[in-house]
Structure formats: C-alpha cells, structure tokens
Amino acid sequence: MDAVEAGDWIAGRPLQLVFLSGLDPINKEHHKNVVSVFRHRSTEKPPLQIRVVSGELDIPPKRLEKASDRGILRRDWPLKYLEKVPALIVVFIDLDWNHPSWEEKKTEAESKVASVRASLRHGTKVALVLIQQKSTSVSDNVAADRAHELCQACSLQSKQLFIFSQESLLDTSKLELAFHELCQTFYQQRLKTIRSRSIPNNSPALVVRQQFKLAFLSELRQDTHTALRNYRLAYDQCKDTVEQWDGVDVFEWRSVVGLLNYKMCELCFLHSTPLEAINQMRRHTSIFFSSAPGIYPTPHLASIELLLWKSRQCYQFAQLFEKSVLSGLSALATLNPGTHLDQAAIIYSTANNEIAALKRNAPLNVPYPTPDPLSNSTNTVFFGQRPWRVNCEGLASAEVEAAAVTAITQRLVVNHEGVITLLSAALVQYQKYGCLRMRKKIMMEMANTCYANNDIQKALRYWGMVLKDCALPYSIRKDMMHRATWAAYAIASVQDFATCCIQLMCPAYSEVLPSNCVPCFFDMLNGIVPGLPFPNDDASNEQIQIYQSKWQQELHDGPKVFVVQASKVAELFLEVCVSFLENPTVEPNSKVPVRIEILSKIDTSICIKDVVVHLQSKKNSTEPIQPAENEPVIYDPLHLGSVEISREQPMQRVVMLDLGRAKQTYMATVTKVVVEMGKAIFGQIEFDENALNRNFHVENIVGVEYLKIGPEKTNAKLEKEVNIDCLIGEVTTTELIIRNTSKSSFHNLRLDFKRKEQKHAEAAAVLFVEEKGTELKSEFSFEICDKLLADAIVTFPLMVSAQLIGDYMLQLELNYETEDANQRIQKSSILEVGVTAKDPFTVTSSVLNMNGIPMTSMLNNCEHILNVSIQSTASIIISSVEFLMADVVTSIETTNGGSGNALNDDVNADEVICYSAAIRVLVKEDEPETPLGRMSVEWKRAAPDACTVRSVVPLCRIPVLACPISISSHIKTNPAIVRQPIEICFELTSHLKEVAELSINFDLNDVFMFSGERKVTFTLLPLSSRRITVVVMALSAGRLNFPKLSLKSAQVADQILQQALRTLPATIFVLVSLSYGGSEPTSLNI
Amino acid sequence: MLGVVGFFIYARENVRLFDSINPQYNQQTLDIEIFTFCSLDIVDEKSAKATEMFLGQLYTDQKWKSFGYITNTGVRMILVLDATSPASLKDQEIRLIFKRFHGYYCNTISNPFYQIGTPMQSKWLDEGIRDLYSSNN
C-alpha cells in the first residue's frame, strides 16, 4: 500500500563499480595487501566501489525489450549499474620486466584479458595491472619495449596498462585516479548510447525512463548538475502528462514522481542550494498533492493511498533536510524540517481517519484471499507496480482485482503510533528552532492522536501542558478544554475531571464554553455521580449509562483524593493573595502580621475545610554561601480553619507570625497556601509561589509580598553627627558623645575600629592615636567606660590622621553588654563618623634656566634653577623645606643643599609660596624623563597646639637633553664699571669621548669696546676644559646685554651648541662709578 | 475570490488586540486560530531582522498562508489567505491592505477613550474588514 520503496541504494551516493580480477588474497600476502589498500575508502579518494572477483564473471546479458513490459522504471535498473555491470575490470598479474619466462607470462596475460573481454557486455573497460617486485625507472628501455609488446598482445592501449610496485604499495591514489578516468569514459559511452535511442511516439513513460537513466548515469559519472537537469526533465514530463495518466497506473506514476522529486531535492541539497530544494518541494506539493486520487482499485483506497503517499513525500523531504542540516546547513524557524514532519503527521492522521472509516464500513467475516494477491509486493518489476498485476497486460482478472481490494483493506491498519513518531520528531525540530507556538500546536495534535488511540491519560497530560499557557487564545483553549473535560469524564478520572472543572468554573471560560461544571464539581466533592459536563452535547443514553456506572464504581471504590497545582493551570476559580502588613524590612525576633485573602470567581458559595499557610525564611544573598548557612527557617504551617466563600464573600484573614530563628539578611515569604475542600472526595488546591498573587497588580496588594529581616535597632547612638574636617597627615582630635537611649544600663563599653570591616577603602587607611599615645595605629580598641546608665552620655576623644583624600565614613564598632533577666547579653552597634580629608597643599615644580626662563627640558651638565610652588589649601605655617634630590641631580648651593630650616613661613588658604634651588643634572644614559627627586615640607596648622607634620612630595620629571660641550662664564672684574675694562672668562668643558674642534666668534656689540682675539679656533681634548678670557669696556651703564659669542664645531651639531650657549647670562649690570652702588658694589648677571 | 480568510492585530507582547475571520470560513475557525497562533513564531523571528514593516509571507500549510506586518511600535498584523484559492493577491495588494489597516489602527488608538493594550472595537477596523471581505467576493 505504501509508495514503493526504491531500496537501500537510494540512501547513498552512487559509486562507480570496478571489479578487480586475478588477485588471490587468501594465498598471496602481497595480493591481500593490494586488496586491503583498495578496499580502504575515504571521501578524498575517487568515488569507486571496488570488488574483488574470481573465477567466472557473472555479468548479466543485455535484456531484450518485450512488448508486455509495460511500466515506467524498472526497480532493478539502478542496481544493474551499482552491483552487476562494472565500469571497469582490472586484471592483476604478477609479472616483472625481467621475468625469466617472459613469453609464457605474456601469453598468460593475453589469455586472461581475452577471457575477461569475452564475458563483457555493455562496453565495460578493461585494464591490466602488473604487480612487480621493484619499481621501474623511467629510462628503462627494456621495460618500455616490453610494455609496448604486452599492450600489443592484449589489444590494450598504453593508458590501460599499469605497473604496481610492491615497494609503493600504499600509494594507490594515482592508480585509483586512472581507474576513475576509465570509468568516466565508460559512463560517457553509456550516456551516448542511451541518448541515441529513439522513442516511438514520444511515449511519456519512455521519455521519463530515458531521462531517468541519463540522470542516474550522470550521477554515476559524478556530473550531478547534468543529473539534476535530466531528473527535472523527467519530472516535468510527468507533470505535463498528469492528465494523460491511465487511471489504473496513477499509483505507479505517483511512485515515479516521488522518486524523481526525492532525487532532485537530494541533488539540490548536495549543490548547497537548499532554497531550490524547498521550492521544488513546494512545487511538488502544489502540483501533485492536490491532484485527484483516482478510482483504482477503489475510490476510497485510492484516496487513502494518496494520503499515505503525500505523508511519505513530506517525511522523506524532512529526512533530506535534516541530513543537510547535520552536514552544516543552517535552518530557520521559517524553514526547517519540522514543518514537513508536521505536515507528514497531519496527512498521516487524516489517512488514519480514512482508514478507520474504511474499516468501519468494510464487510465483516470476509476471509483473507488465497493465494495472497499482495505476496509479490517486494518483487515487483517496476516502481509502483501493483503486485497482483506483475506479468499482466493491463488489469488482472476480475477475481484477482477483487481479492486484491479485500487483501489491501484487511492489511490496512490505523497507525496512530506512526503519527506520534512523526509528531515527536517535529516537536524536537520546533524545540531546536525556537518555534514555541508551533510546538504547542504539535502537542495539541499529539493529544488528539493519543485520544484517538485511546491513550486518554497521555492525551490529558498533553492537553494540560498546552492549557498551562495563558497566551493561547480562548478559541483554541476552549476546544481543548472541551475535549479534555469529556475525556476525563469518560474515564471517570477524579483528578483530571477536577482539574478541568476548576478551570471551566472561571468566568472567562463560562462565557465561551457554557458548562455544568459547577454542579458537577460539587457533586463529585460530595460523592454524588456528576452529571454530564456539557449537557448540550449529543451523547447517547448507552454512553451516558457507561460513564455514570464508571463514576459510580470510582466513587464507590474508596476514599479519593485530588491535588491540583495551581501554577500548572492557566487560571482557576480561586485566587489567593498573601502579603505581610509590615514595613519591607523588620527586626529579627519580631512578630509580623500576615494577610491571606481568598477570592472566588463563582456565585455559588463553596465550603473550604481548611486553609493551610506555609511560610519560610531563608538567606537572601547573591554571594555564594555555605550550604549550612543557607538552611531556611521553615515555620509551622498556619491553619485558618473552615470557611465558606463566594464571589460576594471573599475570605480575608490576618494572622501573626513570629519570625523566631530568622537572622539578619534573611527573607520571609509565604511559600504555599493549600486550600482543602470536599467531603466524600478530599481535594487540595495548592498555590505555590508562582500561583500566589498571580493576577493581582502590585498596587492592589495590601502590604508587602515578602519581608526582609534587617539589623536590630541599636540603643547606643552618637549624640550628634560627627564630621571630621582634616588635612592629610595631621592628627585631628574630635570628641564623640555616646548616648544610651535604652531604658537599661550598658556595661563594659568598648569602641573598636576594624580595618577589614570598613565600607570605604579610604576609611581603612585612616590611622589613630590612642589617648596619651604617641604612635599611629591602623586599628584600635578602647575601653570607654564600665557602665553607662540609661539616657546618660559618655564623651570620648577620637584622634585620627587621614592618609587618603575624600569624603568617607569611619565605621566604629561599639560593643557593650546589657542585662536581661540577670544575664549579660553581648551586643554591638556601628557608629559612623564622617571624614572629609584633603591635601594640605598642592605642589608644582618647574625648571628654569639661569636667565629665569621656564624650560621644558634640561641640558645635561648645565646649571638650572628648580622652582617649587606650594599652594596651600588651609592656613598653615611652613617651618622647613628640604630638597631630597635624586642621585643624578646636584645642588649647586653648597651651604645647606638648598634646604631651609626654621622658616616659619605663614601661608594662608589659597596663597602660593615658592622655593628655588640651583641644580645641575648629570645623566649618563638617555632616558625619556628624569625624576628630580622629592621635597620634604614640615608644616603645621596656623592654630595653637597644632602638631608639626612632615609631608614629602615628589618633584617634577623632566627630559634631559645631551650637552656635549658645556659653557660657563665668570666676570673677573667686580664690580663692572662703565668705561673701565671688564674681564670676562668663558670656560668650555667637553663631555665628549673624542677630540672636538671648536671655533669661537665674539659678536661685537655697540655698547662694549672689545679687546682680544675676536675669533679663536682651538682643539678641546676629551673631558677637558678651556678658558678664554676677553676684556670688554662698557660704553654705558645699566643693564646691558651680555657679550655674545657663537660656537661652531665639526663634531657637535649647531643646534646643540646653541642650546649650550643659552646657559650663559643674558645681561650684565654695569655701574656708573665705584662709589655709586654703595660701599660694596657687585656686578650682577641675571 | 481573493481568498482573504482573516485579519489579526497583536500588541508588541503578542496580546491579541483585534481579530476577524471571514464568515465564509466560520467552520474552520479553530484551524485558522491555530494557524495564526503558529504564525506569530515566524513574526517573532522575522521582526528581529526586518528592514521594513512588511514581513512578507510568514507560514504556509496545505490550507492557509499568512503574511505579516510589524509597525514601528512593534504592533503585529497578520493577514491569513486561503492557500487553495485559485486567485491570489499580489504582493503589492497585500502591502496596501496592511498599510490601510495600519492607518485604521492609528485612528483607533487616537480615540481618547481607548485603553492601550485592550481589545479594539472601532468603526474604522470594522469598515476596513467589511471592505476587505466584500472585495473577496
């Protein structure tokens, strides 16, 4: 009945058949190796199917066409080329070129080839392979001659003779490629032969057959694109002639079309054109799925056969699709194998319905016909051929046809399992591609199929799973609920019927699906047989009797219980709202009121036997915690007793809960509310956390849904908020006033500062000075007093020194003991002290040259001025500064190294004070930046009793440029007086490791008269100095430009020399006369 | 026969705002409902990558085919057509239907008494549906 299966060959890709002859793997070891090498196939190797043959070749002769062969495609034709007719026969012979009996061996080879050739049909190619001990070199003339001789003798072309050396046994790739080439030639010849056959009257069957053969041989030739074209031509031929199909041959045509469609889709997927495959399947569906089923063998059977064929087509396509997905194709929600499996299942389900209808109408007590007309079903000649019509011209005899109809009818079975298998496969696919709604649809279909299969429990389970979804439209839900309720009623399942009833009692259902569920439910609870759930539905009296007797039996059998999990149904006629009438955070050990409200959506009042409220507290933490710490505190369930409720009369209760063992950071929640009801049948509706407060807006809930258990309220507080405003490093004293706000005394008060328990990192760096102590400590513990009476205060001086800037809180832990029933209880509370710490001053340092010009870089070996500006943030007194120079920096001032002691400089807030030092840098290696060192500043607040603080601040970092020639000047005449000779000495020092040629040129200036050599050229030895003295006479007094000179050297770049010259003073101050400037006149060079 | 089977509007969270099934197909309401429900899966998938409001064909089976449209605010519209109908609507015509209903939707939500997210009852949509089904015959 099913579409005829093509056979196993359709599953794999067709391979070129090659026979190996002349090998004796059993007796000869090297032959065995040859066989094993050839038999080892992989995807990289040519697509050959290699078989070792021995003895007589069994190649089928050419078949003569008979007039009685009416059919489209022979079932065994593809097998002919896959298993029987080889494309190539390879004859193996052990023969070396220098074999002593060459002639005899040659004759043997000739006879072997001739024997093989004699048994060949269909133009199979022959090749000869000589297995030799050693490999032959290319230049071996003897070998070439003998090879030619052998080819002549065996009538083979040179490309059909191969040498296979035992030394290169493993390398068969070249040989296999050569075999593949010969096979290609064979299939090409076969294609030509088949293409040249004329088709009388363009018979559709013959055209399809020819195109199929061409396509299949093209596949064997590995030309899949041509194969696809030929399959498509065959398919189009079927499509174009669908109207001409003989009514009795429709099944056969359909089988062929199915086969062609399968091959086309397979090749499309192979060519990585999945969209083409999907489109082909769509085309196939639109053309052939809607075609008329025909009337043979009977209209009903033809219709069933068409449905089964359609289902099979969808299934096969889904299989191909899935195979392609497994090979790397990415499918989508819109395009995935699931839709086709779903389609197959739906069609199969329809077929099942039709089969069931056929079975119902089939005459009973008709024996199965003998002989069996379907016995040949696996041995038919053509695809889709009717087994009882094998070897028949047209229809079989009327008796045989009638017997066939009877046999088919009797063999047909309703196969719900098949549908469920298809649906399960579709379900997996939809799950994979995230099609949640389609998944639900499949579950609905599974439920319907299970129901049809009389597996009602399973059906009810599936319905329950789908009905759980609130997003499902009521129109769909209504239908399922209707079926499920009937099913539960029919099998008298208390649990399922109660589940359905409590859902149907919702007003939303009662509007779209009127039912008698309320009285039914109450009757059931009271042990009375419930009436029909839907009285308007047609049900025969016999059926009603059966159902009611089942219920009678069920209720009579003993106590029954049902438990409904409210979270597993979308809605039900009761709603439970729970809340805590408290602040969101409560203290441990407190008693909290819990509010429970139960609303009914039905007018009829219902008697609830008991309401049990389950509560628990558990650790509320996102951090990983030890399991032992995570032990929830489960409270004893609260029983609210019996109550009667209705729509008008909801139940509202408030009960007190003692939080008891729940600790700080725990969270108290209502975990479950169980509503118990029923007399004869005991029912429980469990509202777990997901079902509680489900349909209530947060703003409509009185109180809070859960309670956080916070810290215990402390009774020891700071009298007023304390905020310490301090400078970094200074010790600030603040007075803390602690008040006992409780009604009892505190004992043994102790204040601790624990670095590790601070919220702020800056707070952890604060240092403390203990009372009368001189040491700075990172932690402290101080006994404040032994007893603090109720409402009394205690004062405590806190001395802190902040080390990091910012606004932060110090958390001080106050530990004390309280008396409770003659027992001391240790308690602690946190006191928070605010700190605002800032830097005492900001320091900026810069480097100037000797003329007071700021520099972005320094010259090595030259003198500079380091200028440090201190901007104070508060009123301070700087008592001393000290330059802590880096190793490479030398202070030129030799008296106290640039440091100043006992300065007593008053600096107000936001004022700036500068300190300078003359320095010289001596760097040996090139570095991008050189740190100049640090500066130590001793300061104190401008307030009485302030302590001195020593702050060390870093100086700037500055790049140091190399200066191979340094130059300095010295005015020997002191003071410089107008119209008097002034002797100036220039000293040039070389820092080079080589000799430097230098020439100095003095620039004449209008304000000076000059005496000496204007241009001096000299050689400066490595690391040596040279002094050049010139005498000038100033023509006017005052601040004059310093006599200029220019330097040139072949060894040093001009730019560097220019930089060196900038270290010279820019001006010279010349006095009018010796007596003008006072008693001790000096010349100044600034 | 253009084979218009029904028109559905869903809010961004797939809450149904409007539904209408051609009275000719009243016998198959359940099938159409399930089919439309499944089409929402494809809307969800396509909406993430949509470059225009019209989503094209969503889903098809032996009986029905659905087309989708998603507005800038995420409101989804689904048009269900009869897959077996001999005459079918062209792509441009389907786009026009959606565009027209988008306008009707905007008119409907412009009603100050309409509460966003609740089922829609408006003369605009009713007239639109009447026109749609009348052109069907």
From TrEMBL, chain A:
GO terms for cellular component: cytoplasm. It comes from Caenorhabditis brenneri (Nematode worm). Residues 252-505 form the Trafficking protein particle complex subunit domain. This is Trafficking protein particle complex subunit 11 domain-containing protein. Pfam families: Foie-gras_1. PANTHER family: FOIE GRAS (PTHR14374), TRAFFICKING PROTEIN PARTICLE COMPLEX SUBUNIT 11 (PTHR14374:SF0). InterPro entries: TPC11.
Automatic annotation (TrEMBL), chain B:
Keywords: ER-Golgi transport, Transport. The keyword Electron transport does not apply. GO terms for biological process: endoplasmic reticulum to Golgi vesicle-mediated transport. It comes from the Eukaryota. InterPro entries: Longin-like_dom_sf, Sedlin, TRAPPC2L. CDD domains: TRAPPC2L. Its main location: cytoplasm. It is found in: Cytoplasm, Perinuclear region. SUPFAM superfamilies: SNARE-like. Pfam families: Sedlin_N. The keyword Transport applies. GO terms for cellular component: perinuclear region of cytoplasm. PANTHER family: TRAFFICKING PROTEIN PARTICLE COMPLEX SUBUNIT 2 (PTHR12403). Belongs to the TRAPP small subunits family. Sedlin subfamily. This is Trafficking protein particle complex subunit 2-like protein.
